[in-house]
Design a protein that fits this description.
Helix content is 31%, strand content 25%. The protein is built from 10 helices and 13 strands.
């Protein structure tokens, strides 16, 4: 029997129109453009505005962009999987909503949440479903309205995050392209260092949590940075060594766009030239679950069939991992 691998066959994206620049942040908190740029690499980020517009809105728009570009019939989609840390509401899956919005009437939908590693973990899930032979077309969307949980008086977090969505279609491949290997990890002790405390089942929002602003994201920057630098680079090295790859074999590094220095540290650790490092953090900031698919959408025209891509991500929880992937088409 010919082995089935899971390949990405189309990508799409959506970014809100409103731009929040570093210069604009200078008027909101005590910071400046030079400080933000030198420490994060971020120049601007997109913010979704409008009553009733949430993650599901952006995820739908990214899916529609993919569908239009690829001439995909939504009725052929088997599953809509939304990777997100900011669902529209509790007890109602964004994936199910998006499936209905795009006319994927034969699909089921659900969400996957692993903070900034959500899309990476979603790649593993989508690939497993495809390789099982049970499903033929899986739409994986990474989307987050980070602005919904950011305190814009907290300069430690408001400079980092932005809103956006990216989508990727997974289909069976019989040429050995697509998903090759993965190395995924987690450490639950990390949730003390990066979290939005209130709003979950442990700490439902009440007048006290609201007064204390506990529904906003808290981040212990030094601890998160240290763990991200070490762990994201470590798993990228492990996946390369396990598959007997050299830096010459790697065409692209697609790393989670959290901080330019973290991305560069990962690239240096696996000895990949900067020309092979996908980077768009300067334009969007950290869009959490959307960073990896937005990279693919932005770099799609440069990707060639057979290209080796090393994906790497690190997120709250802590969650992290790396995936070895071969690109399946020329755009």
């Amino acid at each position: 029997m010919i082995k089935i691998t899971a390949a990405i066959t189309a990508v799409g994206k959506y970014l809100p129109e409103d731009v929040l620049t570093n210069k604009m942040l200078e008027k909101m908190v005590e910071t400046n453009d030079e400080w933000i740029t030198s420490r994060t690499g971020i120049k601007e980020r997109r913010i979704l505005k409008g009553k009733g517009k949430g993650t599901g809105y952006m995820a739908t728009k990214a899916a529609e962009n993919l569908i239009e570009k690829s001439n995909l019939d939504p009725k052929e989609i088997d599953l809509v999987l939304v990777a997100t840390a900011t669902p529209d509401m509790q007890a109602a899956a964004v994936g199910a909503f998006v499936a209905s919005e795009i006319g994927a009437i034969n699909a089921f939908g659900f969400d996957l949440e692993a903070a900034c590693s959500s899309f990476l973990y979603g790649m593993s899930v989508a690939s497993s479903y495809i390789e099982s032979g049970r499903y033929k077309k899986i739409l994986l969307i990474g989307a987050d309205k980070c602005s919904s949980m950011i305190d814009y008086t907290d300069r430690a977090t408001c400079i980092i995050f932005g809103d956006g969505a990216g989508a990727a279609l997974f289909e069976p491949n019989y040429e050995g392209l697509g998903h090759q290997d993965e190395y995924l990890r987690s450490d639950g002790m990390g949730r003390e260092f990066l979290r939005a405390k209130a709003g979950g089942s442990m700490y439902p929002i009440d007048k006290d949590t609201f007064k204390n602003r506990e529904h906003y994201v808290y981040q212990d920057g030094k601890t998160v940075f240290k763990n991200a630098v070490f762990n994201m680079a470590d798993v990228a090295v492990k996946i390369i060594e396990r598959n007997n790859l050299t830096q010459k074999d790697v065409n692209w590094l697609a790393a989670h766009q959290a901080n330019k220095r973290i991305i560069e540290a990962t690239a240096n650790r696996i000895e990949v030239d900067s020309s092979k490092v996908m980077m768009n953090i300067q334009n969007y900031g950290n869009t959490t679950s959307a960073t990896l698919p937005l990279l693919l959408a932005d770099y799609e025209s440069q990707l060639k069939k057979g290209d080796t891509i090393i994906f790497a991500a690190f997120g709250g929880g802590f969650t992290w991992g790396s995936i070895y992937f071969k690109w399946a088409y020329n755009s």
